[in-house]
Write a structure and sequence with these properties.
The chain is mostly beta strands. It has one helix at about 5-10, and strands spanning about 25-30, 35-40, 45-50, 65-70, 75-80, 110-115, 120-125, 130-135, 155-160, 170-175, 185-190, 195-200. Strand 6 and strand 7 form a beta hairpin. It is globular, with a radius of gyration of 19 Å.
Length: about 220
């Protein structure tokens, strides 16, 4: 079915997807011409196509985001910032959760809404005193090709306290170094302008090679 431009502009908010409808979602993140990392339906990062070739099904090992919540002196509770993985390809193929926090507790409820260039993932769990909303977006600015071509995926997590007690909340992420051959990989801590992070590179990759680059 073809839509007119007016119909597309007036389509309104897109529906939220839930349950096994989430299994095949792959929302592209990345600047124009810079490759793509896809956001999956339960909040996972999948299909890392950033090394100058198609890579459906590839994701770095043990690369995911996690939240730790503590109320007072109670033991902290930790969850991977994803909904429950599932579907027909859970044991293999490009929907497999292997390396995406498998074996660790996930949030029990998840919904997904995609409205390019923005995707929204909402996470909740009856055993958690918080809800989490992930907004993932692209550097997509109409008529601005320069800023729309930045090689970034932008993820913003909003945490809401649903209880009546103050909480200590920590968000953290794992990112594996996949630049070049394993033996040359370098992980370097950097601090600048009040920010601290990691720069992942490879000392064996020359600037003229396709594998040259960094993850930060």
């Amino acid at each position: 079915m073809a839509y007119t431009r007016e119909q597309l502009l007036e389509r309104g908010p897109q529906p939220e997807r839930r349950g096994r409808h989430l299994d095949e979602i792959a929302f592209p993140l990345g600047g124009i011409g810079t490759g793509s990392i896809s956001l999956g339906g339960w909040g996972q990062l999948r299909d890392w196509e950033i090394r100058n070739r198609p890579a459906k099904g590839f994701h770095p090992p043990q690369t995911f985001f996690t939240i730790k919540v503590q109320e007072g002196k109670k033991p902290p509770v930790t969850r991977v910032l994803q909904g429950p993985a599932g579907g027909p390809r859970v044991a293999g193929g490009h929907s497999a959760p292997t390396g995406l926090g498998q074996g660790l507790p996930h949030f029990r409820e998840v919904s997904f809404r995609g409205e390019f260039p923005l995707a929204t993932v909402t996470l909740s769990d009856p055993t958690m005193p918080v809800t989490v909303v992930l907004e993932a977006t692209n550097p997509f600015i109409p008529l601005n090709d320069r800023d729309s071509s930045l090689p970034v995926a932008i993820l913003r997590y909003q945490v809401t306290n649903t209880g009546g007690q103050p909480l200590q909340v920590t968000l953290f992420g794992n990112l594996a170094n996949i630049i070049g051959p394993r033996e040359g990989r370098v992980n370097e801590a950097r601090t600048r302008d009040g920010l601290t992070g990691l720069c992942l590179s490879n000392a064996q990759c020359a600037p003229e090679t396709p594998e040259y680059g960094t993850l930060v």
